Structures are given as C-alpha cells and as structure tokens.
C-alpha cells in the first residue's frame, strides 16, 4: 500500500481524513468526497490519488 505522504496529494491532510472516514464510517469514495465537499471538477484527481493508496 502506498504511503499517503508520498503520493503528492492535492492536500494530503484532506486525503488522510477521507481515508480515515472511509474506514471509520464505512463510506464509499463517493460518500467521502460528498462529505468533504470536494468540487466535481476536482473529484477525478482525488479519486486517482485515493486509488493509489490501495494499489501497489
């Protein structure tokens, strides 16, 4: 699994919080992005960076 600090996230703090919320609240990526009010035009970038956390 990729370390979040190494992926050059748009905002690594938000990415970490999204990942934590997904685990703690059993949210999907879409639910987490909704909860953190990520704008539609940035969602694909966030989704790609979140995906990197789960793919070696």
Which short descriptors sum up this protein?
disordered N terminus, 0% strand, 3 helices, mainly alpha, single chain, 56 residues
Mean pLDDT: 84
Q: Could you state the oligomeric state of the chains shown?
A: single chain
Termini, distance in Å? Answer: 5 Å
Number of strands: 0
Described by strand count, sense and barrel closure, the largest sheet is: none
Give the arrangement of secondary structure elements.
Blueprint: H1 12-25, H2 29-35, H3 40-52
Please provide a written account of the structure:
By secondary structure, this protein is mostly helical. The chain contains three helices and no strands. The chain has helices at 12-25, 29-35, 40-52. The model is unreliable at 1-7 (pLDDT under 50).
Quick synopsis:
The protein is 61% helix and 0% strand.
